[in-house]
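re: that complex we talked abt at group meeting.

here r the seqs, copy pasted straight from the sheet so there may be weird spacing, ignore it
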Amino acid sequence: MIRIDRSIIFQIINFLTLVFLLFRFLFKPVVKALDERSDRIRREFEKIEEEKKALEEERRRLEEELKNLKEKYLEMLDQANREAQKIKESIIQEAYREAEKIQREYERRAKREMEQLLLELKEDIVDISEEVAKRILKVHITPEVQTRIIEEMLEEAVSRLEAQLGSTHEG
Amino acid sequence: MRDREKVRVITPFPLTDEQKDILYSKLSRVIREPFLLEEEIDPSLIGGVVILWGEILIDCSVKTQLERLKERILREGIPHVHGR
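got the structure back, here u go
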């Protein structure tokens, strides 16, 4: 027959009690604490993940906004370039018109001055010619020439006068 | 007796008898009564004669012809002179 020592039974009971106590007061709180910590970490991860998603979304939005701004900037730059080109062309055209106007004015003035100079020159030439003709004629008009002048010119004048007087008397 | 009509005759130098005869004969065609020539000398006339009869002026002086020619040249330019 097997003899069971009483001390062994007490040891087994003690051991079981210890196991129970350990399980009840140590393992359970530790497991609970570990679970809580795990949950907290998971929540933190989830929170971080959400924040990450939000940040990603914000980054995309900002990128889109930046892209739009860039397009808008390029469009405005293009518009400004076109406007500048138009203004430039307008200024050039205006400058050409002004230059042509000035040129025409100068040409008109030059022509007028040239005409005036030519007229003055002509007058001078005619004055000199008249003076020369007078001097030459003074030398060359002899009594015979004077007689011929009187005869011929007076004949013409008297004939005209006769005609005038005749028409007056008839009238 | 009526005074004879007076006709002023201006020439650059004194008239010769021949010139006076020409003047008388030409002027007699328009002055139908006896007239007297009043001679006057004006060397600036160069040649020809200027006659003043009442209000009638007959200017046959070379000076006036030259002035007319000058005015014409200034107005119309130098006239073309054709070859002989």
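couple things i noticed - Chain A touches chain B through 27 residues (CB under 8 Å). The CA atoms of residues 31 and 37 of chain A lie 10 Å apart.
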